[in-house]
Amino acid sequence: MSMALLKSRRILLLTLMLLAIISASAGGNSHQTGPRGTNRFDPDGTFWIQGTPPQDFSDIGGINLNSRRLRRFPAAGIDLVGGRKLPFKSLTVRRDNLTFSTAVVRGVSYTFSGRFLKGGVFSAGILDPDTPVLEGTLTKWRGGRKVAEEKLKFTYFGGT
User: Fold this and answer.
1) CA 89, CA 86: separation in Å to the nearest integer?
2) Can you tell me whether residue 107 is helix, strand or coil?
3) pLDDT, one tens digit for every residue, the chain (160 residues)
4) Taking every pair of C-alpha atoms in the chain, what is the biggest distance, in angstroms?
5) Buried-exposed string 14-42: b where 16+ CB fall within 10 A, e elsewhere
6) Helices (H), 27-130
7) Which pTM does this prediction carry?
């Protein structure tokens, strides 16, 4: 065998070993790493008001985030207890900021401004259903007038 062929094989073998070591060190968390090595943030799922909802918000069944439109999650927006849905009119989802406003349905709409209490890929982790992961101010509007506003905490449900 020629010296050049042996050298090429060694380089290939070393490269493959290096790639294997890098892959092994990443372990099972590679799905949570985003661009430039930053931790990926994906809160898609349903958020429920922690504890008993205040009377003015007892009609809310859940706040649904579904940025990738996955079938295992409900459509994005607010689910009301009676079965109606209020889609988001505007939505900003960042690790330190969640804001939205819903469309008006039968004269009622909601706005929210808050922040996530943890990062990561929510559906990939095991989150305690009693521990809040989101907090902020939820406002209810009827006929364009503010009728209720509460600072609330929310727990997470990632579906079945």
Assistant:
1) 9
2) coil
3) 566 655 656 665 455 454 444 444 333 333 344 444 457 888 888 899 999 999 999 999 999 898 666 555 667 789 899 889 999 999 999 999 999 999 999 999 999 999 999 888 887 877 777 899 999 999 999 999 999 999 999 998 876 5
4) 84
5) eeeeeeeeeeeeeeeeeebeeeeeeeebb
6) none
7) 0.72
